[in-house]
Structure formats: C-alpha cells, structure tokens
Amino acid sequence: MNAPSDKFRERVINAAEAALKAGGSVGPLELFQHMGLLHPVHFDGWRKGNEHYRVLEAWIQAGPEKFGKALRIFGEWVHARGLVPVEASYTRRTLRGVEPLQVTADGHPEREKFYRTHYAPADLNARKTQQLAEKLAKPLDLVVFEKVSEEGNCHECGAELPKGSFLFMEKGQPLCLACADLDHLSFLPAGDMALSRRARKHSPLSAVVVRFSRARQRYERQGLLVTEAALAQAEEQCAADAPERAVRRAQAAVERQAEDREFVQSVIQAIAQQFPACPPDEARSVAARTAERGSGRVGRSAAGRALDPRAVELAVIAHIRHTHTNYDELLMRGTERLDARRLVREEIERVLAGWKRS
Asked: What is the average pLDDT across 179-206?
C-alpha cells in the first residue's frame, strides 16, 4: 500500500475513533463530519429542518471514489473493533409534531437505513445501551430566536418583529409567537439548571430560546419557553430541596476546580508534544486561558477537551497572535480583522516553526 493510501486510512480511522469517543457511537454522518467532509453547520441546519440543506447527502464533500474508500475503511474498522449496530432516528420537532428527516433525495429505504445506523461498543451494559438508544432517537428541540436586528415582520400576520422580540422560523420564514401557537408559553431565563430541567420535564410543550452572538459568530442559549403551570411546579420543587442542592453545588465546585487543574496539565503536555521548544511559562499561559470555563475558546470545545492536535495548535496560534505580533495594535488602529490576521500571518508561522523544533 502506498503512502497516500496509508495516510487516508489513518485519517478515516482517527476520525472514527474521535467520533466514537465524542458521542459514544459513530455512524457515516459523524464519520464524515470528523473527516471534514461534512461541515457541522450543514448537518445542524439539516437537523433543524433548514430547506437549504434538505438533501444532506449532497453536502458531503467527497467524490464517488473517496466516498466508497472511506466507507470501506470504516467498515473494516467497525469489524476490527467489534462494534455492534444501533439504529438512530433522525427527526426534528415541528409545530405539527415530530417529523422524520431524509438524508437522500429519493428517501430510498436501504440508503436511509445505512445513514441511520450507528456503531457502539459491544460491552455496553443494558442501562447505557438504553441511554444511547434514547439519545439517538431524541428529536431536536423546537428553537425560538431572539431577534438581534431592528427590522422584520411576521410572514403570516405581518406584525412588526422589533429587536429583542421572539420569533419562530418555519420553512425559512419568520413567524411571531402568536402565529406559531407558542404565545401561551412563559420565558424562563437560563441560569438555574435545576429549575430549567424540571420546568422542561413538566411542560407538555417547550422551546429553546437562542440569540446570535456577533462576537462569537454562533447562537447562544438564552433560556426556555415553558407553560406557566410547569414553571410553577418546577419552582415549588426547587424551593423544597434548595438546601440539599446548595450542598451538592459546593461539592461540584470543588470537583470542577480539581478537573480544571488536571485539564490544564493535560493541555501543557499536549503543547509540549507538538511544540517542544515552546517556553514552559508560555505553555502554561496558553493552557490556563484555553481551559477557562465559559470562555468560548477552542480549548473548551469538544475537540479542545479531547486534546485534538488541531485544537491545540489553534490555541497556540491565538496566543502567538496576541503576544508575539502587533495584531492587537492593528485592531486598535482600525484595521479590519481579516486584514490584520493576514498581516501577522508570516510572524506567526515564524514563531510556530521555532517552537516545533525539538
């Protein structure tokens, strides 16, 4: 077998292992995402019912040869690992109920089943097997958006949708909550996990409220829409066991601190492996900032927590950009972000090359 084939096989196997570790099971769609052949944004758009991604198979960036080769290697890996099939159910919640999603254009039963089939370790106990099956069968939540723009109207009734109002997207068109039949729900802000969990559990209809962050270029959860009765029941339960939960929170905080210290050391070791000439104090600085909870930095992403080499490299690059170049100064002068990144790219590459020397 030639070197390119060896490299491709390694790429497939590494992606499969990463997907299995991240989700507890792995199917073709998860494999392609971890290989970089299916963008997570496209997959998420499909799961949410975005008409633009209705035929997800068309968004897999692989020709017939690469597609077939990747799946052959994947099948060999599944057999070698002794994994067992578990069927997923790709569905989404709508105002009309739960609807199935199609991967293929014609909805061919055999091909749809092929994409839905996940593979999991054969030694899972009955409880974990049941949890995995429930996870794979669970449809996505209804999503309501908090409006961040100034202008807009409901597609159905024409009502104005001012900034800060809630809207529901149906077939690519915005609806006010009244037209979406969600206006009887109450908004519960994020922040109290126990209250949110219980309110959602008791509410026969609920929706997740998100708002787009321009700074982070992603949607961030703001809270839930639940029935008033469910919220009242949840508040009553939370008041009853508040002292007990306070003790658990204190214990969890201590455990998180220990986990964070351990994670920082793991990041430092990962940096040392990839960049052996990186000064120890700089490696510690990168690790500390990368591992900061709630930072939104790459280290807190799924890839970062798994110490994916690319995630580690991105964290190091970000550190170099801010501490070894005049990037921040360029931004303060009014230079566009992408232009500033282009101007400092050569200096970043120079520092990276130096730190990679053993």
From this structure: 92
Round the CA-based radius of gyration of the chain to a whole number and report it: 24
C-alpha pair distances (Å), 255 with each of 1, 250, 252, 297, 305:
48, 9, 5, 21, 17
3-state secondary structure of 37: coil
Phi-psi label, residue 119: left if phi above 0, alpha if psi -120 to 50, beta otherwise: beta
Tell me how far apart the alpha carbons of residues 213 and 276 are, in angstroms, rounded to a whole number.
Answer: 36
Do 89 and 137 meet the contact criterion of CB atoms below 8 Å apart?
Answer: yes
Angle value at C-alpha 90, between 88 and 93, nearest 5 degrees: 135
- 43-89 residue pLDDT tens: 988 887 777 788 899 999 999 999 999 999 999 999 999 999 988 88
CA distance 249 to 84: 38
Q: What is d(CA 43, CA 53) in angstroms, rounded to the nearest whole number?
A: 8
Which residues have a Cβ under 8 Å from the Cβ of 163 and sit 6 or more positions away?
A: 147, 148, 149, 150
CB proximity list for 286: less than 8 A, separation 6 or greater: 267, 271, 278, 315, 316, 319
Helical spans, DSSP H, in the chain: 3-23, 28-35, 40-47, 64-81, 109-116, 126-137, 193-202, 228-240, 242-274, 280-290, 302-305, 309-323, 327-332, 337-356
> Using one digit for the tens of pLDDT, what is the confidence trace for 223-272?
999 999 999 999 999 999 888 888 887 888 788 888 888 888 999 999 99
Structure tokens at 194: 């126990």
**What backbone torsions phi and psi does residue 212 show, to the nearest 5 degrees?**
-80, 130
Distance of CA 166 to the CA centre of its chain: 23
Q: Are 278 and 271 in contact (CB under 8 A)?
A: yes
